[in-house]
Structures are given as C-alpha cells and as structure tokens.
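Reading a protein record of the kind used here takes little practice once its layout is understood. The fold follows as a row of integers, each naming the local backbone shape at the matching residue. With these conventions in mind, the following record can be read line by line:

_____
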Amino acid sequence: MKPLSFTFAFLILTKAYAAFDYPAISAHNAGLANSNLASTIAQEGFLLNPALSVNANSFHAGLNYFQLFNLKELTYSSGQAAFSLKGIHLGAGIQTFGETRYRENKITLNSSKKFINEKLAIGLSLVIYNISIKNYNDINAFGVDLGFRLSLSEGWQVAGVIENINQPKLNGYSEELTNRVQLGFEYRVTKQLYSNVSIQKDAWFTPMVLVGIEYRVSKYLRISSGFASSANLPSAGIGLNISNIAVNYSVQHHFVLGATHFVGIAFAPSN
C-alpha cells in the first residue's frame, strides 16, 4: 500500500510532470535545483542545455542515480560522456526512469561549437524517447533541442534552450512531452562563488523559477544549495574532487513527500 499511497500523494501534491521531465539530470545539478542552464563548469550540462558540452575540454564521463521520494518504482539512472574533437564538442547520454512495469528511456546525441572569439556557444541535441510498458507495445518519439550560451562579460553568462522544437508526439499527444523554453543566467561573484538562476515555461504549465549557488571551498571540495519554485523544493549538495574523480551527493526535500537523495560519480582525466 505504501508505494500506491505515495504515488497518489505525488500526483495531487506536486506538479503533474510530462513524461521525461525529471527534477535533475545529475547529482551535481540536483544540489543547484537544476538551475545551472548557463553554467561554465557543469561538464554533464549538455543534458540540460545542448550548448554546454563545450564545458568538456577533452573528455568527461559520469553516472548518476536517485529514487524519487525513496520509491524504487520511481528510480532514475543516467550515464553520459562528452569530449572535444578539433573544435567540435560531442556528447552522448542515456537516462532511464521507472522499473520493469513502466520505464522511460531517453537517448541524447549532442554536438556544440564556440563562435565569436569563443564568447558564443551553440549546441544541438537529437533525442530519442522510448516508453516501455509491460504487456503493451513500446511508444517512441524523436525530438530536437537547441541551446546557446553567451558570455556578456567576464562574470556574466546568459543562456537559452528550446526543447522539442519539432513538437514530437507520444501516442498522438504532444502534451505528453516537454514543450519548453528556458532562459538562464550565471554570475561568478568571485573565483570560488557561482550563482545561477533560470526560468522555465512549458506550453502546458505555469512558469517555474530555479535558483542555485555553488561555493568552491578548495580544489577538493565544493558545496551548493538551490530552490525550485514548482513544488517549493529546497536542495543542497556536496562534491569531492579526488585526482580525476568527482563524487557528488545532493538532497532535495519535499515538505510532504520527504527527501530524494542523488548520488553521482564523474571522471575527467584532463581535470
């Protein structure tokens, strides 16, 4: 009864998300409430903004995992990699959500490039959507996302994303997929302190505001905090850098349904 009651509470107390719409793409992003749309440091960020694969200077790979509200039926896992090749930045990622009875699979293929003395980054992602339901035929769709990030000054970045610009449909219904426009800013207060804010507007939902800050205590340790307005979700995170390995942990707290814990590990030999 517990999973059923929690699922019912989730539906009536939180925003009714479209398919493939998750609270964060990684443990690092979760600590910032997924606000870092204009990030200059998030190397897995191309899953959020197609332009952000430019942050991976040579090679980056990561794995992430969480169970939404600690329910195994709402399990998310992802793996992604990005690298640079002769000025072109490429990325690939896979995200899964659910379990054997119902599972969402999302595959992202990405490319981005810098222009105008490297002040402007533009990226394009091709996205394959798949829903697998036990005893039913799979449902598939194909989407295209476009994103940019522009450096306004040494400390200010602005970014924008249009998701599913081709307006794909799942089982004949376009509202089943995110049809969203996003605008975000990053302001580097100091060399160690970054602040982020983004605004999301889906065609089917009211606008949502996301904010986050990250402080790099040392080259080995960083801490973060964020807030998402959709369901009044505060978040906090910590990251440890050990040689070429980064280990991340974050938590988001819903005041009725409880906490969601995010864990992730990343490898970047150039860093």
Remarks:
- Residues 2 and 71 are 9 Å apart (CA to CA).
